[in-house]
Each structure stands twice: as C-alpha cells, then as structure tokens.
Amino acid sequence: xxxxxxxxxxxxxxxxxxxxxxxxxxxxxxxxxxxxxxxxxxxxxxxxxxxxxxxxxxxxxxxxxxxxxxxxxxxxxxxxxxxxxxxxxxxxxxxxxxxxxxxxxxxxxxxxxxxxxxxxxxxxxxxxxxxxxxxxxxxxxxxxxxxxxxxxxxxxxxxxxxxxxxxxxxxxxxxxxxxxxxxxxxxxxxxxxxxxxxxxxxxxxxxxxxxxxxxxxxxxxxxxxxxxxxxxxxxxxxxxxxxxxxxxxxxxxxxxxxxxxxxxxxxxxxxxxxxxxxxxxxxxxxxxxxxxxxxxxxxxxxxxxxxxxxxxxxxxxxxxxxxxxxxxxxx
Length: 331
Description:
Elements: H1 2-27, E1 31-33, E2 42-44, H2 48-64, H3 70-93, H4 97-103, H5 109-113, E3 122-123, E4 127-128, H6 135-153, H7 159-177, H8 185-204, H9 213-230, H10 234-240, H11 242-255, E5 268-270, E6 275-278, H12 288-293, E7 300-301, H13 302-326
Antiparallel strand pairs: 1-2, 3-4, 5-6, 6-7
C-alpha cells in the first residue's frame, strides 16, 4: 500500500506549496489583475512552483520507494525541471515565440537519450505500427506543441488545469479498464500527476485564488507528452487534445504566424456588467474562447464561460477514452 502514501504525500505537498505561494506572493505584492472580473481584482501571479512541487514530490517518492525505475524517474524529473525553467524564464524575460518553440524541445531529450520510448504507437485497425525513424521527431514536436499549446489555452480561471486533469484522469481510467495495475510504474506516475494537478486545480478554478503563470503552463503542458509516451497512449491523448489543437490552429491561422501576445488584439472583451463577448474586430485572433463566446448574443459571465470550457474539455476526454476502448486498445 506504499502507493497510497505516494498519493497522500503528493496531495499534501501540492496543497502546502500552493498556499505558501499565495501567501508569499500577496506579502511581496506579486499580483496580477484578473481582467475578466468586474472591479479587476488582483491575485497572486504564479502557481508554477506549487504544481511543480507536487509533481516532483510524487515522482521522487515513487522513485525512492522503487515503484518506478531509476531511468524513468530521472528522465521525468529532468523533463519537469526543464519545463519549469523555461516557464520561469518566460515569466521573467518574456521570451520570443521562436525561443519558446525551440526551448520546448529540450524536455523531450531525457526520454530520447535514455531510450524510454517505444516507437510503435497503437493505431486503430493496424495495432502497433513501427515508425522507428519518425517517432523521435514526432516526440520532439509533441513536447514543444503541448507546452506552448497549454500556455495558449491558459486564458481563464481553471481552463488549463481542468484540461490537463481531464486528459490524465481519463487516461488513467483507460489504463485501469484495460487491466493495468495501479502499482505498475507508469500507471502510478500517471496517478500522481493526476492527483497533483487536481490538488492544485482547486486553487485555480473559478474564482481563482492564484494564476498559473507561464511557469505553471509549461509544467502542466509537459506532463501530457510525458504520460503519452511512457504509457503508450498516443492515440488517446491526441484525440482528447482536440480543444487545444482547435485553439492553436485557429489562433495561428488568424494571426498568420507566431506573434508575441502583446502585439495581438484581444479575442474577447468584457462589458460593463462583466459579460464576456467575442471581439468584433476582424484583426483579433480566433481562439477557442472567442468561438464559444459567439454562441451567446448577450455574452457569458466568466463563470458561465469557464463551465462551458470545463465541460468541453471533460467531454473530449470521455469521448477519446470511449473511442480508444471501443476500437480495441489492447490490455
């Protein structure tokens, strides 16, 4: 039952680290304006250290208790540390888009160099297909896409943690329904990641007590390709990530490239009553939030909008899990 200790420690560390971050950031005035609320309240800016602490604690304890192999534990910790450093650098120096993309490749290196991937992803109706030469390139792309895609999806209270949480939670359910043991190394790692993000999400969901910052976005983003490759759930994660891909595709095609967010018009605006509307400016980027906001002529309150987004993310993961299982993902 040591796995239960791993879970409990992960929860405790994440909650304490989050509360400590909130306290210290308020004490030292590290606050950001919540633009989508009436009165524009200021809340702590960066929960990256908190979620990072929970993920590292769970991984490290799994490693020390022998649940995961040294190579897997070390590679996972290195990837998390790299993502944390990239996000932190972005928070402090506002990295250019090209650097975010290039640096986003780095957390894939521990997995590649330690040969912890299996270049035979499961594809429906074709079983496990060998793509030995292509797989490392796809894995590099997946790491930078998910880190930067997570950052782009982090627009409103709780959207990113709920997105990552729904992906991991239903990946875990998929694994368990195909007969994987909770004590198996990669399954336990998936459980600790799910628990850490859940514990942190309680502080970031509407109304948020702390923002994620770029640090939190990159850290949560890197957990997805890590679990995708270590648990060999490529098909499920790609399918469940449809909302992120839609958001990224429409954004990039509408602004015609990788632009700094400061040079891009806001895709939505907030009226005097606090309702969020899709921007009428033809030059404003098309995003998932803007597409959702178009469905209401009267606009959404932020609470209504995030409920729609939370539901969308959850349904996407539920459908992806169901499709994966129905199409015969092997036990």
